[in-house]
């Protein structure tokens, strides 16, 4: 993935209107692994209970 592709991808996701911090992690992982082939980026997510902010919880 090139830097231009990364920026294009995150812009598209942002424009959907429901992006969170976690939305962009996969693209960042791909970018880092493309730029530095010797690394393997990982994403350690916290448990769902830790992620819920009841003040901002919105169900669709």
Question: Topology of this protein?
Answer:
Layout: H1 3-15, H2 25-35, H3 48-51
> What form results from the Cα inertia axes?
flat
Major sheet size, sense and barrel closure: none
Average pLDDT metric: 80
Beta fraction: under 5%
Distance between the termini: 33 Å
Number of helices: 3
CA-based gyration radius: 14 Å
Question: Could you write a compact summary of the structure shown?
Answer:
The protein has 60 residues and is mainly α. It has helices at 3-15, 25-35, 48-51.
Task: Write up what this structure looks like.
The chain contains three helices and no strands. The protein is mainly alpha-helical and 60 residues long. It has one domain. α1 packs antiparallel against α2. The longest helix has 13 residues. The chain is flat and about 35 Å long. The model has no long low-confidence stretch (mean pLDDT 80).
């Amino acid at each position: 993935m090139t830097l231009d592709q990364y920026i294009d991808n995150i812009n598209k996701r942002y424009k959907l209107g429901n992006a969170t911090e976690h939305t962009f992690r996969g693209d960042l992982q791909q970018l880092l692994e493309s730029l530095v082939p010797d690394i393997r980026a990982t994403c350690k997510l916290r448990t769902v209970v830790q992620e819920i902010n009841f003040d901002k919880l919105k169900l669709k």
